[in-house]
Amino acid sequence: MIDHRVENIYWMARYMERALFSLNIGKSYLGYGLEASQEKWNYCWQRIKKGMRIFSTPEPTNSSLPVSLFFLLFDSENPLSAMSSLFSARENSKILRDILPVALWEQLNEAYFLLSSTTVTSSLQPSHYPLITSTIEKMLLFGQLEYYLFEEDELWAWLRAGEYIEKIGNFAALLFAYDPTENKDNPSFEEWEAFLNSLFLLDLFRKKVGLASLSFDKITSFILLANKYPYSILSQLEKLMGCLGIISQEWIVDMAQSTTKELLGKIVDSYRKEVSSENRKKLFLEIQIACNSIHQHLLSAIG
Q1: What is the average pLDDT across 117-124?
Q2: Strand, coil or helix: what is 301?
Q3: Which of helix, strand or coil describes residue 237?
Q4: Among 19, 180, 203, 269, which residue carries the largest CB count within 10 Å?
Q5: Which of 87, 110, 82 minimizes the C-alpha distance to 21?
Q6: How many CB atoms lie within 10 A of CB 186?
Q7: Which pLDDT tens digit goes with each residue over 15-35?
Q8: What pLDDT is attached to residue 1?
Q9: Which segments constitute the DUF403 domain (predicted)?
Q10: Torsion of CA 224, 226, 230, 232, to 10 degrees
């Protein structure tokens, strides 16, 4: 396979995952934000920005809920918005039309046009909730179809590797943003619910742990180590290792494999002993740094 097309597959996957992350955060926090005071929403919005690694992008001076979520989802001038990410995913997918299964192209195309069809120009309204939900559903269906339409070859592995790296980095960044040592206030129960829901974790956490036990420490442990749950960081790292094993049959990715293995060991070791708040926060940063290193190693392998 031509190198640049592998890179297109990888970037398409990362942009898709980024768009899904942004959309589900917007959907999950909309309900909380409508009920929260402006002061509480301001604190929450700072956590969201930090968790989504929005640092250098120009942001709205008005931090009200409608303006903030518009910036997060629909603002084409924000390169990290869901709209911008979906656009970039679609641009990469165009180059892959002859090898991308038709059903995947259709889901991606429909998700993009659904989101871009809105006439919203400056602020998000509760009436946009069904639109956001429908777009998320199409993107989740895209992910489900991957398993049926792709063989487990290097093409599939590059696609999944892009998704896992993006997802792991996003989870670690959002956990870092909610670390108590990073915040002046304590998030409310309702905000914690929105947090869990934004990671597709709320129902499972309610079933396995219980919301009565809701705390940052319990949430952190669950997201990092619940390896029977496919969205945990440990589980995703293990799956990433599997993808890299497939990729290594055709590409030299030993550095990416080594970094992933080292990160797996750090996560497991950190929870074999009592972890201080400082070391826990350091771990979240190390996960993000490692994901960036794996990303760079893979791009170098492509050449």
Answers
A1: 71
A2: helix
A3: helix
A4: 19
A5: 82
A6: 10
A7: 999 999 999 999 999 989 989
A8: 47
A9: 5-298
A10: -10
Question: Where does the chain have alpha helices with state H?
Answer: 3-35, 38-51, 65-73, 82-94, 102-116, 129-149, 154-178, 189-198, 202-208, 216-225, 233-247, 254-270, 277-302
Q: Tokens at residue 24, please?
A: 């589900």
Kindly tell me if the per-residue pLDDT of 2 is higher than 60: no
Kindly tell me if the per-residue pLDDT of 122 is higher than 80.
Answer: no
Q: What percent of the chain has pLDDT over 90?
A: 58
CA torsion angle 24 87 124 216 (round to 10): 30
Q: Is 210 left (phi over 0), alpha (psi -120 to 50) or beta?
A: left
Ranges of each domain in the chain: 1-150, 152-303
Measured distance CA(46)–CA(217) in Å, rounded: 21
Could you tell me the pLDDT band of residue 151, with boundaries at 50, 70 and 90? low
Rounded Cα gap, residues 24 and 200, in angstroms = 8
For the whole prediction, is pTM greater than 0.90? yes
Report which residue type is found at 128: H
Q: Are 239 and 197 in contact (CB under 8 A)?
A: no
Q: How many CB atoms are closer than 10 A to CB 83?
A: 23
The amino acid occupying position 232 is S
The residues near 43 (Cβ < 8 Å, ≥ 6 apart) are: 183, 184, 185, 187
For residue 239, what are its two tokens?
A: 């799956």
pLDDT tier at 56, thresholds 50, 70, 90: low
